[in-house]
Structure of Berberine bridge enzyme-like 18:
Amino acid sequence: MTNGFLECLKKEIHNYTSISSLVYTPINPSYQSVLDFSIRNKRFISDSTPKPLMIITPEYDYQIAPIIYFAKHNQLQIRTRSGGHDFEGRSYVSEVPFVIIDLLNFSEITVDAEQKTAWLGAGATIGMLYYNIKVKSPRLAFPGGFFPTVGVGGHFSGGGWGVLLRKYGLAADHVIDARIVDVNGRILDRNSMGEDLFWAIRGGGGASFGVILAWKVRLVEVPETVTVFTIYRDLDQNATQLVHRWQYVAPNCDEDLFLRIVSRRNISGDGRMTIRAAFNSVFLGGIDRLLAVMEEKFPELGLVRDDCIEMSWIQSILYNVGLPIDSLEPLLDRFQHDVGYYKGKSDYVRNRFP
Ligand SMILES: Cc1cc2nc3c(=O)[nH]c(=O)nc-3n(C[C@H](O)[C@H](O)[C@H](O)COP(=O)(O)OP(=O)(O)OC[C@H]3O[C@@H](n4cnc5c(N)ncnc54)[C@H](O)[C@@H]3O)c2cc1C
């Protein structure tokens, strides 16, 4: 089947030699490394994980329609991969015969600081987007997620939230145009796809509707200085009461204040197992105003000046993922160095925990 598929592709793509170097079948020595490159969960790096018949890494829009025609003709499923962060590996695993279209070559980003917009290839990462915005303006930002290696292809088409959530909403709320290849191989933009499809790909998951090639987004304004803090509280430091109280404060306070909790198991000083809650915040403003807001809304946490650090918004991205804040270059690195085994699941809490 693989040979037949390649023959079909040769006929359909006029300049096949230009793409043959971008097609990886299991006999290609680079097949495994190309497959693994964007796998972010070791659960899906095993001999028992179903493997694609081929991985295609197109470079141009026109190379995608022929892949769609012939996958359909040969009853192969297409898995589209941008950053590879799908929690269940859906961009590179399937129970039926399949091929992967990997968009990692679609990572061009053009920022127009004057218009406060950017066009970005679906294979770009949010780290690349943040970096490119910063190069153009320290006062502009984008309300996307935390982890720099997350791909914008999956992230924007599923929603996408991060530290600017409270003030600006989701990444998908700021998508103002898109280019997509539909199931019939047509390349559509917002105008030609119509508002229904444009609505659906901003939250409904892109792969349900086609292959997204690029997004146009509206950028948002941030102050030159933001303030971050992370305060840890164990169970014997009132963590339970603070977490409970936080549920009333966090959704209702000043919208410049993003305040989340990450709670984990922890071994206390005397060797006992406990739970540690990390209250982690990015505030769109300086320390003085943050202290005033916290004193009014959440004095129980006991935030003091020494807990707070002022920095730029882009540095807060690095801070939140534990990277040194003095170099922005790691934001451009799309290789995730610490891939582990995990199960991830998210939900939106509608009722407060008693
Ligand atoms: C370590 C980690 C950190 C995360 N942090 C955050 C966070 O801070 N905030 C947040 O909101 N979410 C976060 N997520 C969730 C993440 O936003 C989603 O998993 C998102 O779908 C990943 O997009 P991707 O392009 O990297 O993934 P992929 O695995 O490439 O794709 C995810 C899904 O989208 C489809 N898809 C991808 N590209 C395209 C395309 N071009 N056209 C059509 N369909 C496409 C895939 O087929 C798949 O179904 C995180 C996930 C991980 C693993």
